[in-house]
Design goal:
Length: about 450
Amino acid sequence: MKRTGNQWTAFAHIITAVIGSGVLSLAWSVAQLGWIAGPIILLCFASVTLTSAFLLCNCYKSTDQQGNMNITHSHGSYLEAVQSILGNRKAWICGIFVWINSIKLGIVYTITFALSISAIRKSNCYHDEGHKAECQLSNTIYMIIFGSVQVLLSQIPDFRSTKWLSIAAALMSFIYSSIGSGLSLAKVIDNGEIKGGIGGWPSPNAAKKVWPVAQALGNIAFAFPFSIIILEIQDTLKEPTEKATMKKASTMAVWTSTFFYLCCGGLGYAAFGTETPGNLLAGFGFYEPYWLLDFANACIAVQLCGGYQVFSQPFYAIIEKWLRKKLPQSRLFVGDYNLTLNKHLLAFRLSFLRVIFRTSYVAVITGIAILFPYFNQVVGFAGAITFWPIVVYFPVEMYLKQKKIESWTTKKIVLRTYTYVCLMVILFAFVGSIRALIIARFS
């Protein structure tokens, strides 16, 4: 297929992936960490994500020697690169984390969509009946609606075909992040003071302070989740400058998203202090102007529809490729069928494999989201569970193997130290997030 992508389409894909539901929990995360640690940790995670992007860009192509010839291979997916560079055993391990990553993002996006649509109805209820009115609504029906929408969008054939969806979703990301920051700034001005403190949310003892901090780290980790699709994005770019283009797009996208994160997280904490909600736009720290809050949550809903597909399409491709290899003689699963309803309309390419597998997958994700509808806790757990292997470990290992960096060299020592430090931080976040999720589920 002709590769027509450029720096701006890559930027749109990354922004769609990065500025998602994770930004909504950042004010709460900064509230746990305080004015010094909060922004510093956000910048640290941004730096780790950008480092991962650069390492993966270098892994897009590899060269094998066959006889007297050097054969260059392009890796169109994260898992394909791991298999080619690190071997089948690590590819199997990586495949498990890719599977978990796709599932966790689907769950969080489903929960967030339901909260955003529910928030629209609640804000209108509070506007009509007062801020103390009983406006509690069930989110289950909205999760089912989101699942139904994703069943339809999942019939998009492949990642390349999501360009238009990413551009629309990226625009929505900028809009609702700007609204969240603007509303927070307006509340700070209205309060006449900057709330919050250097140490973050005060706690009566160390134990009660430690676990929210751990969960906050998980929430921040979730806010930078695009390493898994870097190679898919790079595979859409025009040759022969796709590597340089990808690095420029990654740099632009990471620092743009970090600017919005600092605005949303910092201004949200400044506005609410110890009362910072877990979800900045659906937690009802804001009530007015209700129409602007409605518009922001509508933008979130649209962005989540695109973000779900950006992350799910690579996973769909992996599973469907495997199924086609296992069932090569099955015309039902292997073949595509062109359906034309009218000669004046475009034909639609139907695949029974896509219909059956993707519909089943979305149904399972929706069911899990209904069982665990806890936004803040699920975001923390989701951020911690796959961040280290996908963003840190595999990119470093592929880079070391491909560049043939010898042991005890300065570069290898630095990269190994970087890997282990990140592991310790994420293990701490993982334990705290698991604890918070268990308490939420059984309390």
